[in-house]
Specification:
Elements: E1 34-36, E2 39-41, E3 45-52, H1 62-77, E4 83-92, H2 95-105, H3 119-132, E5 136-148, H4 151-158, H5 160-166, H6 168-171, H7 173-177, H8 179-189, E6 196-198, H9 201-212, E7 231-232, H10 238-241, E8 244-247, E9 255-261, E10 264-278, E11 302-309, H11 312-336, H12 343-360, E12 369-380, H13 383-397, E13 401-404, H14 409-414, E14 429-432, H15 433-437, E15 453-458, E16 465-468, H16 472-475, E17 482-486, H17 493-506, E18 510-515, E19 533-537, H18 566-592, H19 595-598, H20 601-614, H21 622-634, H22 638-651, E20 677-681, H23 699-721, E21 728-732, H24 742-754, E22 760-766, H25 769-773, H26 778-781, E23 784-787, H27 793-803, H28 811-815, E24 834-838, E25 844-849, H29 857-862, E26 910-912, E27 918-920, E28 925-927, H30 950-957
Helix pairs in contact: 2-3, 11-12, 18-20, 18-23, 20-21, 20-30, 21-22, 23-24
Pfam families: AAA_10
Protein name: AAA domain-containing protein
C-alpha cells in the first residue's frame, strides 16, 4: 500500500499568534521573573535566599551574646560588594500540624469513658484553645546577591521559549555558571551566627505570599507546593500576584491592600515606617537587639531591610573626602574668622579617624562598613487602626530610636516584595557590620518541641506556644528523663505537676505520684481517669506496705536481654538490689532510734550485724532484724538488747506498723487491674522544718522522714515491674527531705541513671534547688528544669545553676518577679503561674503555665489547692445524712483501705541503770531514786557496752553474695570518727572506708581512723 500524501504545513507568520493563544506574552506585575529553587531572578539581579535559624537570647550571658553578634558580623563582612535583602515575617503557629503530631505520638492512650471527656473532645479542645491565642512563629529570610545580570542573560531569558526547544542547555547556562558561587554562599551563611539553610520551595512560596499580600491575614492552611516542584516561570508568578491589589490615596498615611481569601474579599490598611536616627545602643550590656523590640507588640510586624556591604577601598576614599570637608570647615572657623569651631565638627573629625583606624587595624570582616534602609510594616482593618498601631511602634522605640512615617506608602510597601527596587534613598543608615549584627533579627523565644503536650506560652519578648514531650529525650536524644521542679510556697509546683500528669495520661503514659499533702489525689476522681486510677493513703494502708525489703523491686531477666551477658547482668542487678535493701533497712531502723543513740558507733555495729544476718531477700521484714538483735543480746551483746528494746518501743507507734507486714492481710499493691495512675498520699505525716538539723527532729518527724523515704522507693518500684519500653512517669514531692537521707540520695541517683533505659520521666519537686544539688551528679544528669518564684538570694543562685544559666549577671532578681501579684488585691490568687523552663536541649525561656481552656475547667478545679470555706463538709448529725456545701458532695478516695484499729498501750520496758535506777524505755523516764549522773537524752548511758569489730561480725554472719567487679558495699556506713577497740584482722576484712553514718554526725573530738585502726573513744561517747 502506498503511503498517503502529506499536505504541506503552512509556515507561521512571524509576529502573529497561533489560534488559541493571546495576543501578547504574560509579563508579571512585579520585577521578579523566575524562581528556581532558592534562586530568584529579575532583569538585572540574581539572588539566593536563605532561611535563618532562630537564635536564643534570653538567659544567656553577655559574653555568649557578644560571641553571637561577632559571628553574625563576621559572616556579613564576608559578603563585601553584595546587596542583601532581609525579610522578617510571621507564620501562624501550625496548630493542625501540632495536633497531628501529638495524635500520632499518643501511643497506647487509654480508652474513652462514656459520659466523660474523650480523646477526640480533648484534642479538639486543645486545638480550639490554641487557635484562640493567635500566636505566631517568627520567620527570617535573607536574600544575598549572587551576581548582576548582563545583556546576554536577559536576552536568553526572553528567548527561553524558543531556546528551550532548540538549545535547552542555553537556558540553564546562567545558573550553571553561578553554581560555584552559590555553593560558596551556601557554606558561608551556614556557619554559626546566621545558621542559615537554603530556602525550600514551601519557604519561597510563603515568602512571596506574605510579601505580595502584605498586611492581609496570614492563611493558616496555605496549600503546600506540589511535590517535586521548585521552579516558577514568569507565567507561574501570577499565582502570587493575581487577586491582590494595592491602592493609595495621595498623601494618605496608609496603603490599602485588597485581596481574595477563600472566595471572600479582604481589605487591610498597611502603614510602612522607616528607621531613622539612632543613638548609640549598648547591646548586649543594657539594650536588647533593636529588631527584637517589635516582638513585644500584640500584633504582627513585618520587616524589610535593603543592605549593601561596602568594599574597604570605597569606604577609604569616602572617609578621605569626608575628612577633607571637616578640616576645611575647621580651618574656615579658625583661620578665616579666628573663632573656635563647633564641638560637633570636632566630634565628626574624631569619628572619621576612629572609623579609619578600625578599617586599617584589627579584623577586617568585623570592621566592614555598610549602609541600608530598614522598613517596618503594620496593618489594621481600617486606616485608624493601622495608624494607631504605627504610633505604638513609634512609642516603643523612642527615645533611643527615631521611627519615621514617610509618604509614598505604595512604593514603600512594594519594597517588601523580593526583587522590587528601592522606593527612595531617604532615611539611609550607615554603620559597621557589627552594628547591623547587633540587631539580631532571628532572636526569638525557642523552647520545647512540636509534638508534646501544651504547657502554656512564653512570656518574654516573644510570645509563642510551648509544647513539651517528656519522653523525647529518652526515645530520640538518648538523654536522661530527670526533671526538677523548684519553687517556693505558692509557686505552682503542684499545679504544674498535675497538668503534666493529666495531659500525658491522656496521651498514653502511666504515672505513679507520691504527693504527701494529697491535692493530686483529686486526679483519681476525674470521670475520664477514675476507672484507670487508684488512690492509696499510705498512713491508713495495710501493715507492711512500706516494708523496706519489699519497696526495692526485684530485677526481671527480660530487662537484660540487650546486654552482652544477660544472665550475668541479671544476677549482678539482683545482688545490687539485695545490697540496696540491706542499706535501706539499716538507714530506716537507725532513723527510728533517738538521735543520741543512733549516733553511737556501737549502735551502728549491732544493727549492721543483725541486718547482714537477715540478708537482703525481698521476703524479709524489719521484725526479723529485731529478732536477730535479741539473739545477739542473748549471746552477751548487751547493746544489741538496748537497740532492740528501742525498736520494739517504736514498733508500737501506729505509723511504724507500715514497716512490719501482717501476713493475714492482702497486699493492696498486687492489683488485679492495670492502673494507669496511682497516687500515694501521706496526709497527716509530720515532717521537720526544711533545713532544721537532725538533732532537732522529734520522734514523729524522724519517723515521717523515714516513711517518706520508703514511700519514694515504693513509688519507683513500678518502673521495674512494667515493660521497659512503656512510657512511664514518677512524680515525687517534698524531695528536699530525700537529700538528707543517704538512701534518698541513692534513689534520686538511681532514677536519674535508669530513666533512659526504662523510658521514665521522673519529676522531683522541691522548695530549694540546693537540696537537689547536694545529690552527687544531679546537676549533670538533670534534663529538664522548671523554676518558679524564688525569693532567697542563695536559693536564686542555686536555681540558676540547676538551669545552667549564668549567675551574677542579673538573672537572680528576675526569679523573684515570677508570677507577680498586686499588693492591694483581696481576690483569690488564681493567676497562672510563671516558671523559667529549660527543656534540656538548649532552650531556656520564661513560660506561663496555661490550663485555662474551657474543656479543662474540671481539671483546673481539681488541681486548685487554694483553701475555700465553701468546700467544708458539715458534720453528720446522729442518724442522719452528711450535710455538704453546695456543689461539693462528700467523696471518698477509691481503693483507700479502712483505718487501722487502735493499738493497746504497751507495757513499760524497764532496764536497770548502771547506778541501780530503772529507766522506762518507752517514755525515756527514770524510775526510782538516783543521783544526778549525766545520762544521754534517750535515757541510756553509753558506758559498759563492748564495741565489736566489723571483722568479727563478718566472720559470724558471712558476707552477702557480690561479684568481684562490684564496688558497691552497702554496709560501709561506719563512721570514720568512731573506734574499734580491738585490732583489725590480717585478712583485711574490716571496714576501713570511713564513710559517715546515715545521720551524718560523729563524735565531737573529730578523731579519724588511721591504717584501719581508729583511735579509742571513751565509753560514754561524748568525745572527751
Amino acid at each position: 500500500m502506498a503511503a498517503p500524501e502529506r499536505t504541506p504545513r503552512p509556515k507561521a507568520r512571524r509576529g502573529r499568534a497561533r489560534a488559541g493563544e493571546g495576543g501578547s506574552d504574560y509579563t508579571p506585575s512585579i520585577a521578579l521573573r523566575s524562581i528556581d529553587g532558592h534562586i530568584t531572578r529579575t532583569n538585572g539581579q540574581v539572588m539566593a535566599w536563605y532561611r535563618l535559624a532562630a537564635q536564643a537570647w534570653s538567659f544567656r550571658s553577655d559574653n555568649q551574646r557578644e560571641v553571637l553578634i561577632r559571628q553574625i558580623a563576621a559572616q556579613l563582612g564576608e559578603l563585601q560588594g553584595r546587596w542583601l535583602h532581609l525579610r522578617v515575617t510571621t507564620r501562624p503557629y501550625p496548630v493542625h500540624m501540632w495536633a497531628e503530631s501529638f495524635d500520632q505520638n499518643a501511643i497506647g492512650r487509654m480508652p474513652d469513658v462514656p459520659g466523660a471527656l474523650g480523646w477526640d473532645g480533648f484534642l479538639e479542645g486543645e486545638q480550639r484553645h490554641l487557635m484562640g491565642l493567635s500566636m505566631a512563629d517568627k520567620e527570617v529570610f535573607l536574600g544575598v546577591e549572587v551576581s548582576g545580570r548582563g545583556l546576554i542573560d536577559r536576552w536568553v531569558e526572553r528567548a527561553a521559549p524558543v531556546l528551550d526547544r532548540l538549545v535547552p542547555s542555553a537556558v540553564k547556562a546562567e545558573l550553571a555558571a553561578l553554581e560555584t558561587e552559590i555553593n560558596h554562599l551556601d557554606v558561608l551563611v551556614a556557619g554559626s551566627g546566621l545558621d542559615a539553610v537554603p530556602a525550600s520551595a514551601e519557604d519561597m512560596a510563603w515568602l512571596m505570599h506574605r510579601s505580595v499580600a502584605l498586611g492581609l491575614p496570614a492563611p493558616r492552611g496555605l496549600s503546600s507546593v506540589p511535590r517535586g516542584v521548585s521552579t516558577w516561570e514568569p507565567e507561574d508568578l501570577a499565582a502570587f500576584t493575581e487577586g491582590v491589589d494595592l491602592h493609595q490615596e495621595p498623601y494618605a498615611p496608609t496603603v490599602q491592600v485588597v485581596g481574595r481569601m477563600r472566595s471572600q474579599t479582604v481589605t487591610r490598611n498597611v502603614a510602612v515606617l522607616s528607621v531613622g536616627l539612632m543613638e548609640g545602643l549598648r547591646i548586649p550590656e543594657i539594650d536588647d537587639p533593636w529588631m527584637q523590640h517589635s516582638d513585644r507588640l500584640p500584633f504582627p510586624v513585618e520587616w524589610s531591610a535593603r543592605i549593601y556591604v561596602r568594599r574597604p577601598e570605597d569606604v577609604t576614599g569616602e572617609l578621605q573626602r569626608q575628612m577633607g570637608k571637616v578640616r576645611s570647615q575647621i580651618r574656615h572657623y579658625t583661620h578665616d574668622h579666628d573663632l573656635d569651631p563647633p564641638m560637633s565638627l570636632a566630634r565628626q573629625a574624631d569619628r572619621v579617624l576612629e572609623v579609619e583606624d578600625e578599617l586599617t587595624t584589627g579584623l577586617t570582616q568585623l570592621n566592614t562598613r555598610l549602609y541600608g534602609w530598614w522598613r517596618i510594616a503594620v496593618s489594621g482593618r481600617d486606616e485608624a487602626e493601622a495608624t494607631t498601631r504605627a504610633q505604638q511602634v513609634v512609642d516603643l522605640y523612642r527615645p533611643k530610636v527615631q521611627i519615621e512615617h514617610p509618604e509614598a506608602q505604595y512604593r514603600y510597601a512594594r519594597e517588601f516584595i523580593p526583587g522590587e527596587p528601592l522606593a527612595a534613598t531617604a532615611y539611609r543608615r550607615r554603620g559597621s557590620v557589627t552594628w547591623a549584627a547587633a540587631a539580631v533579627p532571628a532572636a526569638t523565644a525557642s523552647v520545647g518541641d512540636r509534638r508534646g503536650i501544651m504547657l502554656g506560652e512564653t512570656c518574654t519578648a516573644t510570645r509563642r506556644p510551648v509544647a513539651w514531650d517528656p519522653w523525647l529525650a529518652q526515645e530520640v536524644r538518648r538523654a536522661s528523663g530527670l526533671t526538677a521542679i523548684v519553687g517556693g510556697l505558692g509557686s505552682g509546683k503542684s499545679f504544674l505537676t498535675g497538668l503534666v500528669v493529666y495531659k500525658t495520661l491522656r496521651a498514653g503514659a502511666r504515672w505513679t505520684v507520691l504527693d504527701p499533702s494529697g491535692p493530686l489525689a483529686e486526679l483519681t476522681r476525674l470521670p475520664e481517669l477514675a476507672p484507670f486510677s487508684r488512690h492509696i493513703n499510705l498512713l491508713r494502708a495495710d501493715p507492711g506496705i512500706l516494708n523496706p525489703y519489699r519497696v526495692v523491686a526485684e530485677p526481671r531477666p527480660d530487662h537484660f536481654l540487650d546486654d552482652e551477658d544477660p544472665e550475668r547482668a541479671w544476677k549482678r542487678e539482683r545482688s545490687l538490689a539485695a545490697a540496696t535493701r540491706r542499706r535501706l533497712v539499716l538507714d530506716v531502723l537507725s532513723g527510728l532510734l533517738p538521735y543520741e543513740i543512733a549516733r553511737q558507733p556501737h549502735t551502728r555495729i549491732v544493727l549492721l550485724r543483725a541486718v547482714r544476718e537477715v540478708g537482703g531477700s525481698p521476703d524479709r521484714h524489719p521484725g526479723m532484724v529485731i529478732d536477730a538483735l535479741r539473739r545477739h543480746a542473748g549471746e552477751g551483746e548487751d547493746h544489741a538488747g538496748v537497740v532492740a528494746d528501742f525498736l520494739d518501743e517504736r514498733r508500737e507507734l501506729p505509723q511504724a506498723a507500715l514497716l512490719f507486714p501482717d501476713e493475714t492481710r492482702a497486699d493492696p499493691w498486687q492489683a488485679d487491674r492495670d492502673y494507669r495512675l496511682t497516687v500515694l498520699t501521706m496526709q497527716g505525716l509530720s515532717l521537720p522544718r526544711p533545713g532544721s538539723p537532725r538533732e532537732e527532729w522529734t520522734d514523729n518527724e524522724s519517723l515521717g522522714v523515714e516513711l517518706l523515704n520508703l514511700a519514694s522507693w515504693l513509688t519507683q518500684r513500678t518502673i521495674y515491674d512494667a515493660d521497659r519500653n512503656l512510657r512511664k512517669g514518677v512524680a515525687l514531692d517534698e524531695t528536699h527531705f530525700l537529700s538528707q537521707v543517704p538512701t534518698g540520695k541513692v534513689l534520686i541517683d538511681r532514677l536519674a541513671r535508669d530513666s533512659r533505659k526504662f523510658n521514665v520521666r521522673a519529676l522531683f519537686a522541691s522548695q530549694l534547688a540546693g537540696d537537689l544539688l547536694r545529690v552527687s551528679g544531679f546537676a549533670s544528669l538533670v534534663n529538664a528544669v522548671f523554676v518558679g518564684r524564688t525569693d532567697d538570694e542563695e536559693a536564686q543562685s542555686e536555681a540558676l545553676r540547676l538551669l545552667r544559666v549564668p549567675t551574677d549577671v542579673g538573672y537572680e532578681e528576675m526569679l523573684g518577679t515570677l508570677s507577680p501579684r498586686p499588693r492591694h488585691d483581696d481576690r483569690p490568687d488564681d493567676a497562672p503561674r510563671q516558671f523559667v523552663f529549660a527543656d534540656g536541649h538548649g532552650g531556656v525561656e520564661k513560660v506561663r503555665i496555661d490550663l485555662e481552656a474551657p474543656h479543662l475547667e474540671h481539671v483546673r478545679e481539681a488541681l486548685d489547692t487554694n483553701p475555700d470555706a465553701a468546700r467544708v463538709v458539715a458534720p453528720r448529725p446522729p442518724g442522719g445524712p452528711a450535710i455538704t456545701a453546695p456543689g461539693h458532695p462528700e467523696m471518698s478516695a477509691p481503693d483507700e483501705p479502712s483505718p487501722l484499729p487502735a493499738r493497746r498501750a504497751p507495757a513499760p520496758v524497764v532496764l536497770p541503770d548502771l547506778d541501780g535506777d530503772e529507766i522506762d524505755l518507752r517514755t525515756d523516764t527514770r524510775i526510782g531514786p538516783g543521783d544526778d549522773d549525766p545520762v544521754l537524752a534517750g535515757g541510756i548511758r553509753a558506758g559498759g557496752v563492748q564495741v565489736v569489730s566489723v571483722a568479727a561480725t563478718d566472720a559470724a554472719v558471712g558476707r552477702a553474695e557480690l561479684y568481684d567487679d562490684e564496688q558497691l558495699d552497702l554496709l560501709d556506713e561506719l563512721d570514720d570518727d568512731w573506734v574499734v577497740d580491738e585490732p583489725a584482722p590480717a585478712d583485711g576484712t574490716a571496714s576501713t572506708d570511713g564513710t559517715a553514718p546515715a545521720n551524718g554526725t560523729g563524735p565531737s573530738n573529730g578523731t579519724a581512723a588511721t591504717n584501719g585502726h581508729p583511735a579509742a573513744a571513751p565509753p560514754d561517747g561524748d568525745g572527751r
